[in-house]
């Protein structure tokens, strides 16, 4: 059986090469005609075509590169040809033409930037749909299979400790399904609402109130005047950090924000990046993945920098311009 592979990348490269050749031909032809025919604007106005064609070139600076070549050629052509109109009007026409070409190049550049942003948004939407579909079809079906298996076993087991054991396992599988469904809702909402300035101390306090802390203490040493520009779902980031500490910090007694207090087990060196992958971990493996996705909306990064055996330390790196302090802190 024969198979055919279509290389889209090669096709795009060939198309770019063809456009580039057409641009070169038009520029050379226009320059030649401008030097031999005394028609002025009737000829050099064709320089506008190569600038338009840069819309389809991958290089976003292409329109500026073209006008950097064209503008000198306009004046060289002016010097080598006999003007068909008074000199002052010929100079005025070509000057206005240069301004027009610069304006057109700027317009194309802005258009290409906007198109790039639209493509990135579309790509993110596709990734979201792919991931949500994967969770819906694969992960939840797996948990349903486990749940059905435990329920089937329960039918054949008389009441007692063994039956209770399987009931707990079935309940855990049902809880994981619920968490996955909640995750799909949260993930779907990432990027839906515009980022906003939010008080970090308040975010941590809100997350701590919602978390099941048991006997673990949350110490919030963040000044009350620190603001961060982030997706409105950022409160889930702090909730997931606290929740992960409670679930996996076997010796943990304190969760402290932005103060180095390490009394838990920490994260193994080999797992520092893996813990942010979807599906990695002892539970659903969705919390830290979701946290990093939420922060990435405004280019904020989340990493684990603790030492194994000395406690976990998660660092949120906020780029310049995405944080600010308001007035004087009361903390």
Q: Mind explaining what this structure looks like?
A:
A three-stranded antiparallel β-sheet has the order 1-3-7. Strands 2-4 form a two-stranded parallel ribbon. It folds into three domains: 8-119; 122-189; 196-325, Heat Shock Protein 90. The chain has helices at 8-36, 41-44, 48-53, 62-80, 87-155, 161-189, 200-210, 234-248, 287-296, and strands spanning 196-199, 217-220, 226-230, 254-257, 301-304, 314-317, 323-325. The chain has 331 residues and is mainly alpha-helical. Helix 4 (62-80) runs antiparallel to helix 5 (87-155). It has nine helices and seven strands.
Supply the key terms:
single chain, 331 residues, mainly alpha, Heat Shock Protein 90, three-stranded antiparallel beta sheet, two-stranded parallel ribbon, 58% helix
């Amino acid at each position: 059986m024969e198979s055919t592979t279509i290389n889209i990348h090669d096709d795009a490269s060939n198309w770019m090469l063809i456009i580039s050749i057409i641009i070169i031909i038009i520029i050379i032809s226009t320059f030649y005609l401008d030097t031999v025919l005394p028609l002025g604007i009737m000829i050099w106005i064709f320089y506008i075509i190569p600038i338009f064609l840069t819309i389809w070139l991958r290089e976003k600076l292409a329109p500026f590169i073209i006008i950097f070549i064209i503008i000198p050629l306009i004046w060289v052509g002016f010097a080598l040809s006999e003007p068909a109109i008074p000199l002052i009007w010929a100079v005025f026409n070509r000057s206005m033409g240069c301004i027009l070409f610069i304006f057109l190049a700027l317009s194309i550049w802005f258009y290409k930037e906007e198109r790039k942003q639209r493509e990135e948004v579309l790509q993110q939407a596709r990734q979201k749909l792919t991931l949500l579909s994967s969770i819906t079809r694969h992960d939840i079906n797996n948990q349903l299979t486990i749940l059905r298996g435990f329920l089937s076993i329960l039918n054949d087991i008389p009441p007692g400790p063994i039956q209770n054991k399987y009931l707990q396992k079935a309940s855990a599988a049902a809880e994981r399904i619920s968490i996955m469904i909640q995750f799909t809702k949260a993930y779907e909402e990432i990027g839906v609402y515009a980022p906003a300035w939010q008080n970090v101390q308040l975010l941590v306090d809100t997350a701590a109130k919602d978390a099941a802390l048991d006997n673990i203490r949350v110490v919030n040493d963040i000044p009350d005047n620190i603001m961060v520009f982030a997706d409105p779902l950022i409160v889930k980031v702090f909730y997931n950090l606290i929740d992960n500490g409670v679930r996996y910090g076997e010796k943990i007694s304190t969760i402290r924000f932005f103060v180095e207090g390490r009394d838990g087990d920490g994260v193994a060196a080999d797992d520092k990046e893996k813990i942010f992958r979807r599906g990695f971990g002892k539970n659903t493996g969705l919390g830290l993945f979701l946290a990093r996705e939420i922060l990435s909306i405004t280019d904020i990064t989340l990493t684990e920098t603790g030492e194994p055996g000395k406690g976990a330390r998660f660092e949120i790196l906020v780029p310049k311009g995405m944080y600010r302090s308001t007035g004087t802190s009361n903390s």
